Amino acid sequence: MNKGWAAVVGLGLICMAAAAAAQNMDPEAVNPSTPDLMNPATKPIDEGFQNPIPPEQQRPTVSDWGGLRPDYGREETYYFCSPCHSDARIKAARKTRADWSATIDRILEKYPYEPLEAQEREVILDYLAKQYGPNVP
Question: What is the pLDDT of residue 67?
Fold first, then answer.
């Protein structure tokens, strides 16, 4: 019985040592050529980000627009929001226009997209407030 416990404790110590060594590893040593693109803090900023809303001539002619409700502004909202998350997040949020505006500010601050033109921003805010506001069924 004592030998069995000793083996379990020994194996546990080996696992803990391996985990500690893995935590202290330099992430660049694993694969220095591949940045962690899922972590915004380590995304290569020097490559820059482009505004996700493409020019008019590059927009698709047929799309389900990620399941967003049909209305003026759906297309702009789709292009601004869908690069990072699905429509489910928008549908669940149910924010006021002021809260949607604060969300857009936070996104533009956290992820360095090109600034939205004032008109595009208003179109997106109008759409989100009308279609996904707190009192919309």
Answer: 83
